[in-house]
Write a structure and sequence with these properties.
Blueprint (H helix, E strand, L loop, with lengths): L1 E4 L12 E6 L6 H12 L3 E3 H8 L5 H11 L6 H12 L7 E5 L5 H8 L6 H4 L2 H4 E7 L2 H9 L1 E4 L5 E3 L18 E2 L6 H25 L1 E6 L4 H16 L9 H6 L3
Helix pairs in contact: 1-10
Bound molecules: adenosine-5'-diphosphate.
Adenosine-5'-diphosphate binds next to α2 and α3.
Amino acid sequence: MQRQIFRPAKVDEQQAPLVIAVFGPPGGGKGTQSSMLAKFLRVPHISIGSLLRSYAQDKSEVRLRLRGMMALGNLVPDTLVLDVLATRVSEPDCARGLILDGFPRTLRQADLLERGLLQFPFYSTNLREKLVAIHLRVQGSTIAGRLSGRRICSRCSATYHLETQPPRVHGECDFDGSALTIREDNRKAAVLKRLRLYEQQTAPILSHYAEKASLLEVDGEQPRENIAQEIVTAIQGMLRISVAGPKNAQSMVENHP
Ligand code: ADP
């Protein structure tokens, strides 16, 4: 089932950069769908969680503290998130638009985004009219199954699932053979904390976008190809964009690593 609340953009849509923000609980499939959509639309997939994990990869005291916060499932301070995000978004590949995965996560961040925090001319004007929010709706029982089976490569961060997306060789990454591990924040206590924070801090943004921007509600329980197909069809209809490259979500999925 899909529900769309859409206010048509007033700008020339062929020229308008796309800003798509993907929402859903931890384990809701944001990363998978963002990455497929980014390939299809040929704009970068900006995962704030991944940016922060890379940023935290050294032994300075600040970064160790940051790793600790993330391992416990807490949100990290806005100043740091904004800094990391603004640096990434100022790169030239974001000029045509981007897919935001993990931002905004609070109403305050949504407000900062709308007020032009990204320091890029097109983001600071009429962002609301250009922003499309996608909400992947997933039940708690599905999330528990997805997160408990999730494994990540200790070197390249490729993700796997023991049942639905196992590696070719048990316990080893398909790309570089490194050991697969459990992400610290996928342990039970951290998952519960992340879910609680999602309900308290992130879910209210959806009502905000339902009123003030374009919100696409998608059933995130379906197979990932169907979800992708549904999103692409809706986005093409919403923005009337013409994209070069794969013509449907099936080929987009086939091209996905
Ligand atoms: P998920 O969305 O499944 O919880 P992510 O990989 O997106 O996982 O994020 C991992 C962690 O990174 C979060 O639990 C939080 O600590 C931090 N993080 C990500 N995005 C934000 C944000 N916008 N604001 C604050 N912290 C964030």
